[in-house]
Each structure stands twice: as C-alpha cells, then as structure tokens.
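for the recovery benchmark. tokens below, seq after
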C-alpha cells in the first residue's frame, strides 16, 4: 500500500524541456503515482521548445509557464489560453518571482539560468540544482544568500550528488563538523568520446564526432563540454562552493564505466563511494525526496554483468581544460563568470562550425587570462564579466588567423 502524503510540495521546473527537465518531470510523475509523494508542478520554463512545453503543461495541469523565445509565445498562448504565460529573456525569472512554490528544479543550461536560480535562492526555496553556472559564475554570492534566506541546494549532477550522499549531510553550512575528516573528494569522469584519442585527433574532431558520447545521452552543449572535459572544469569549481573545500582537496579520475559517480576519502584513508548505472533519474529523485529514499523508476545495477571498474589519471596534455578550474578557484571574483561565458561562446561557435574543436579550450583559457577578474559584489558584476568574455571570444574568432571548420 502506498502511504498517504503528509504535505504537498509546489515545484517550479526551470529548463523543463531539456534532458534534465524532462527526466525531472518523469520522476515527479513516478513519485506521485507510485511512491506516495505529493508534488504539484506549479510552473514550467523553457527556452524555445513550445511543443514539449505545451504537452508538459497539459499533462501536469500547470497554470503558469515561461518561454524565452518570443517568437514561440503566440503558439503557447494559443494552445494554453487559460494559462499565464511569461515571455522573453527574463520569463523564467518572472515565473519564479510570481508563482508561489516550495521547490525549484534549476535545469536551465548555461548562464541564462543564473538570474532565475538566484531568485529561487533569494526566496528560500529548496533547489534541485543541475545548473552548474549558478555556482561557477556566482558562488561567492550564493553562499551568503543561502544563509540569509534559508534556501537549500541539493545537487543533481551525478558527481556532486554522489559526494553529497557520501557525506550524508546538507550543503547549507551544516556540514562544518565534517570538514576536518575529509582528505579529498574525487570526481569521476567518463573521458568522453576522445578518452583514448591522440592529441591531433582531438584537436581536429568534427561536430559529429564530438557529439557521440559513449555513456550519457545529453544536450549538445553539455556533450561538447564532456568531449573537451570542460564539464569537469566547471564541476571542480561547483564542488569547491558546494562542499566548501579548497582546490587541493578536489581531484579528478577517468572512469569510463561511469558506475562510480564520485567518492570521498577521509583522513583515516577509508573511502566512501556512490555507485549506480548512468541514469540521471537516480540523482534527480534523490534530490526531490531527500533525506528519504523511496522506490525508483531509474535503472538498477546488474552486478552480474559488471566485469571491471577501471580508473586512470587525467592526461592534462590532451585535456587542458581541468587546470582552468583550479585557476578559477584560486583567482575568485568574476573569473568563474569569465571562464563559463567564454566557453559557452566558443562551444556555440564550434557547433556552428566557425572554429575547430581544438580552439574551444584555447579561447576559454585566453579569456580567463586576458579579461581581468573583478570583485564579485553583485549580479551586475557577473553580467558584465559574462559580456566582456563573450565579446573577447567573438573578437578572437573574427581575427583573420582563425581557421573555421569545413562542413
């Protein structure tokens, strides 16, 4: 028998039509139908995928939606005449401001999700966080905001969820007593599609090659970040802010099976790891039900088929990006915003076949070096750093020496 829910939680899903957003809604549907939970979806925000947004709003009977692409607004308004529709680049922010909620799934990819996620923190919501950029670009702002508002962040990235589960504690400053025993945390990485490729192959990879991730099914931007290992760069910075650890206590290991999602080494040399198949529904559900564990709709491990768990160090000659994460942790200020924006701009240019694959990390590194970091005293500083970094990358791309990718 499914137990009756004690309270109804009201959830806003930012980035509802993306990979994490759709998986979040699948998990919510499962929890409500099969696990005795009561989660009411009260708001959905999308970028431009009006078709999926409309389907989601109808299925969950949502009364408030947001769409960033103004060109799609008429489609949404016509299909959902009785629903309040927020439109434009600030639509997700307005949705969070106007709709009463207890929880927020922050799943918008990139810096465009920053303002709405910060607003959710300001309003004291419990946030299932998969938007790396919130902490990468604005970690110095987030920590005091959490303390002031009482908001909680439960990480959804499989690596950070693994660390969070190993520590078995909140990330809202209640884990202070556990800092001393931690020797280091280790984030695992699949190695992406170029794990065994030589440097020349990586430098000249095509868009199609870079999008063939061997383990995870993700959106194009995240998949390219995995191919350059920039995703691990961002995760290093995110882990620094989530767990209040210095860079020297955060390491990386290549783990192609993607079964050990990350682990914690303690000062007595014991290690705790979190294992599971590569299924994002597991960390999503953990974030939505924390601190409880209930029956899941995600895949279970078939231990009879697991032949080996292999690990190897990161080759920083072939994959230069992770070193930039340590530089950002050391530099602080707006350096994270600069790195994130430069990478986003470079990835976009690569997907448009305007630059070769090997230039993505080079451009991000140049921006980090040449766009000076400023004190991070508010959101305006993040926005300005973001603008300067994107401008820097675009100017470099337009230089005559830049070689574009052949179709």
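predicted aa per position
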């Amino acid at each position: 028998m499914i137990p009756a829910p004690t309270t109804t939680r009201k959830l806003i899903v930012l980035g509802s039509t993306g990979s994490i957003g759709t998986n979040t809604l699948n998990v919510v549907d499962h929890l409500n139908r099969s696990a005795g939970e009561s989660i009411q979806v009260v708001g959905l925000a999308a970028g431009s995928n009006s078709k999926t947004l409309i389907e989601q709003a109808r299925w969950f009977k949502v009364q408030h939606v947001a769409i960033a692409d103004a060109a799609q607004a008429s489609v949404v308004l016509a299909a959902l005449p009785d629903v309040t529709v927020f439109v434009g680049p600030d639509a997700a922010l307005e949705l969070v401001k106007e709709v009463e909620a207890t929880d927020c799934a922050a799943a918008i990819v990139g810096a465009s999700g920053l303002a709405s996620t910060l607003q959710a923190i300001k309003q004291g919501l419990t946030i299932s966080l998969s938007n790396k950029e919130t902490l990468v670009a604005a970690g110095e702002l987030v920590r005091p905001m959490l303390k002031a508002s009482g908001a909680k962040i439960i990480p959804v990235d499989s690596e950070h969820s693994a660390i969070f589960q190993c520590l078995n504690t909140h990330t809202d400053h209640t884990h202070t007593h556990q800092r001393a025993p931690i020797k280091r945390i280790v984030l695992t990485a699949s190695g992406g599609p170029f794990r065994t490729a030589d440097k020349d192959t990586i430098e000249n990879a095509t868009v199609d090659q870079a999008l063939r991730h061997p383990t995870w099914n993700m959106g194009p931007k995240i998949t390219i970040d995995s191919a350059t290992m920039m995703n691990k760069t961002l995760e290093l910075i995110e882990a620094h802010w989530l767990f209040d650890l210095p860079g020297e206590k955060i390491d990386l290991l290549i783990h192609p099976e993607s079964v050990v999602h990350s682990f914690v080494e303690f000062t007595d040399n014991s290690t705790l790891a979190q294992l599971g198949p590569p299924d994002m529904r597991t960390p999503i559900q953990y974030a939505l039900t924390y601190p409880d564990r209930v029956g899941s709709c995600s895949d279970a491990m078939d231990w009879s088929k697991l032949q080996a768990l292999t690990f190897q160090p990161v080759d920083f000659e072939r994959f230069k990006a992770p070193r930039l994460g340590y530089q950002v942790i050391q530099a602080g200020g707006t350096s994270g915003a600069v790195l994130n924006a430069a990478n986003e701009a470079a990835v976009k240019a690569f997907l448009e076949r305007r630059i070769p694959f090997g230039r993505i990390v080079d451009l991000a590194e140049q921006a980090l070096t040449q766009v000076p970091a400023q004190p991070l005293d508010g959101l305006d500083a993040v926005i300005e750093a973001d603008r300067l970094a994107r401008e820097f990358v675009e100017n470099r791309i337009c230089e005559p020496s830049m070689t574009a990718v052949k179709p």
